[in-house]
Amino acid sequence: MTRIVVVGGGMAGLSAALFCARRGHRVTVLERDVATAPDGPDTAFDAWHRPGVPQARHSHKFLGRSCRVLEQEAPDVLDALLRAGAARVPVSRFDAGRGEFTDYALAARRLAYEAVLRRAADREPGVVVRAGARVVGLATVAGDVPRVTGVRLDRGEVVSGDLVVDAGGRHTRLADGLDLPNLPSPEVHTCGFVYLTRHYRLLPGQEIPALDRPLATSLGYAATLAFPADSRTFSLSVTLSTEDPMRHALRNPEVWDRFVDAVPHTARWAVRGVPEGPVHMMSRIENRRQRLAGPDGPAVVGLVLLGDAALQTNPTYGRGVSLAFAHAQQLAGGLEFIDDPYRFAVEFDEWTERNLGVWYRTQIVADSAGLARMAAGLRGERPDPPTDPFARLMAGMEDLAARDEVVGRGLGRMAHLLITPTQLLGDREVVQRVVAHLGDRPLPAEQLDGPDRAEFEGLAGVSGPMTGVS
Ligand SMILES: Cc1cc2nc3c(=O)[nH]c(=O)nc-3n(C[C@H](O)[C@H](O)[C@H](O)COP(=O)(O)OP(=O)(O)OC[C@H]3O[C@@H](n4cnc5c(N)ncnc54)[C@H](O)[C@@H]3O)c2cc1C
Known about the structure:
By secondary structure, the protein is of the alpha+beta class. It has helices at residues 11-21, 41-47, 64-73, 75-83, 110-123, 253-262, 264-270, 320-333, 341-355, 357-378, 389-401, 405-415, 421-425, 428-438, 453-460; strands spanning 3-7, 26-31, 61-62, 87-90, 104-107, 127-131, 135-141, 147-153, 158-160, 163-166, 187-190, 193-202, 216-218, 222-228, 233-241, 273-282, 286-289, 293-294, 297-298, 303-305, 311-312.
């Protein structure tokens, strides 16, 4: 039995606590936010005060991989999510409208989902969740490699454990406070956009649009995304370049409504619902990777980084929770080596890099193309189709995935982290179909369906109240 101290009661911390406790370990979760999870999805979304999670009221989807991990580790939580109104949605567009499908994701508002997870952790024997407990530092003993033995809270209390898990999310920097000479520098790549979200409730008699059409579209200078959610709600999100002088205008609800009505992709959703609440906006969005081990081995032992603390990826792909759950599952399964803290640190770092690092690295490649596309769109230009062979293959795959079931299913399973990019590219049938589709022709220019840049500036150039800065 290991005594584990988890910093942060978000997606990574709560799932780690559950998965570890169910293997017989004792877990204390220290969460800085004071409020506990309210009952009921609407109350959780409307009233749960979560300043420690700035993205809490932004659109979230819960990819197939997160469902797979819950099936394996906590099927009762999956059932509770469904009872709380979360909806099963197919991973593949080719399953839309079918009653039964094997690979599925969950549709829910983030706080409605998280409240179910939190209540499960609160009830779990072996887990204690302490709300209003802010960790300000780590307690260590010196050695060839320093060992973390616990954490310090803001009121001076020390909470000790055999392992400290920093699951403090996107802004945690606890390891920096140790001043470790071998701590690798974080790797940071900006996503280059701000993220805006508004939630809606379906009008009586209305249902969400069929899910056999794409849930995201690009206008060059912007992208729009639609998210089915729980309890007859859905949300729409828009990304705009951090360089876009119009980016704050969309926080004005009137401008927002005009914009989503002008884009066919979002209009078919917006017409079915009424907006609930303000337009939320979030900036400082990045791909970020922090490791505790470098080429000379771990800089510290007795400490692991979990979830966003270890790696953050472009939120438009919706990978964060799945990566956090997979990370938590690996942590819980690997605790048999905890008596050898050095070996544990090395193996956990290597597993993370091998199995989760791939999603971080492929994201950076995809995002560099996305940044170029947004910059062209901002100048009012149409982005050039990619010419380098790999980007061409991937663009061809996306193009074909809408029509070809084999390719569509393969790409869908990769997008939901159920197979790796290497597995997808190793599928000869998929690659052969894409190569045949591409032939020697240049790729067709991307279809941009919505207001062009000048029209957007026209409809956004209105002053008025702005709301919902998060
Ligand atoms: C705009 C946006 C949209 C996103 N959309 C999606 C999506 O569609 N699908 C998806 O899977 N992922 C999405 N993500 C990513 C997802 O939100 C994160 O990956 C996920 O929440 C990571 O879980 P975590 O536990 O690491 O961090 P969090 O869930 O942020 O939890 C961190 C917790 O630590 C607490 N904490 C921090 N510091 C301390 C401290 N010192 N002491 C005590 N407690 C502390 C915080 O209060 C918080 O509760 C999105 C992210 C953003 C920014």
